[in-house]
Amino acid sequence: MRAFIPISKPNITEKEISYVNAAVTSTWVSSLGEYIIKFEKDFASFCGVDYAVSVFNGTVAIHLALEALGIGEGDEVIMPNLSFIATANAVLHARAVPVFADIEPDTLCIDANDIERKITGKTKAIMPVHLYGHPANMNSILKIASEHDLLVIEDAAEAHGAKAFGKTVGSFGKCATFSFYGNKIITTGEGGMITTNDQVLDKRLRHLRDHAMLKEKRYWHDTLGFNYRMTNLQAALGCAQLERVGFLLSRRNEILRTYEKHLAGVKRLSLNKHADWAEPSCWLVCMEIQGASEKERDEFMIHLNQAGIDSRPYFFPMSFMPYINMPVDTPVTFEKYKIGLNLPTYIDLSEEEIEYVCSVIKKYL
Ligand SMILES: Cc1ncc(COP(=O)(O)O)c(C=O)c1O
């Protein structure tokens, strides 16, 4: 009997084990230690920015960025309607208002034309999401932001190492946020990072991350802060993963190429598309069944599951969530979420397993 093929699985080698071991053995198990310093430095250089501030996960990375930038009560933040809910939740936790724009059909990222339509006197920031590893069109977004004097915060949780117009994501906006959850391109178990070129913002993020305690006066807190610190254990795992990121990225792209090879010519089916200015990082293989209803897509996923293959549906439009429940005009999002799903995408997935997944898909469709 074939083993169940999961949707994702972290790739942990002797390097990760030895770094985490070293961190534990050093007794620096909380949020001070040499791995924290190294992980932040190496991640900043990986993204081509001056500063990187590690935090506990990708959701608090967004929240901390918003707080540090002074975005709060009543401020509007424009984001794509198709994303993981953390993007909107972090804005709600900051007491600001998520405003949902539509996506582009090919990149699945925010549509710059719709951003322009959604700008009001209350708009403070644009938060593009580099969805499933494809970068948003940062040239168009930065142009709109500069014309309207808006901040840009990239949600790069799913796109470590992806490039737009030859530049790495995480280096475009005022700042960018990343996630290192177990299914991400590199993982620290739970974990997150904020990248920026702004020295003042870097200082403010570090201050707020650590209970807003004054460096020069211990246990004096000049504002309401947070404990959002990453541990040295998480950073040890992150350092080892980051040393291997070239391999991790190329392997994911190779997996997509293998799916493409085995699914070429299948009617109604399309896989990840990409813009000619983009070098995506294939976080997850995306498959769409043209013309499918949500029910048909869900039945197909049940079929995959019965054949021992895990998959996951595209995110629901965030505007649908009962506590958000906003009427919005995002027709492409409403069409795409129903027809899309993600297929198993992880480093140890063999060509034989991909062939099996593709044979099940072909037979069904
Ligand atoms: C687009 C996006 N934003 C934010 C997050 C939040 O990251 P985390 O799960 O580390 O809190 C995720 C993660 O899953 C994500 O996919």
TrEMBL record:
GO terms for molecular function: GDP-4-dehydro-6-deoxy-D-mannose-4-aminotransferase activity; pyridoxal phosphate binding. Pathway: Bacterial outer membrane biogenesis; LPS O-antigen biosynthesis. CDD domains: AHBA_syn. It holds the Pfam family DegT_DnrJ_EryC1. It catalyses: GDP-alpha-D-perosamine + 2-oxoglutarate = GDP-4-dehydro-alpha-D-rhamnose + L-glutamate. Its EC number is 2.6.1.102. Its cofactor is pyridoxal 5'-phosphate. It is an enzyme of class 2 (transferase). Keywords: Aminotransferase, Pyridoxal phosphate, Transferase. InterPro entries: DegT/StrS_aminotransferase, PyrdxlP-dep_Trfase, PyrdxlP-dep_Trfase_major, PyrdxlP-dep_Trfase_small. The active site is at 184 (proton acceptor). One of its GO terms (biological process) is polysaccharide biosynthetic process. The modification N6-(pyridoxal phosphate)lysine is found at residue 184. Transmembrane segments: none annotated. Belongs to the DegT/DnrJ/EryC1 family. This is GDP-perosamine synthase. The lineage of its organism: Bacteria, Pseudomonadati, Bacteroidota, Saprospiria, Saprospirales.
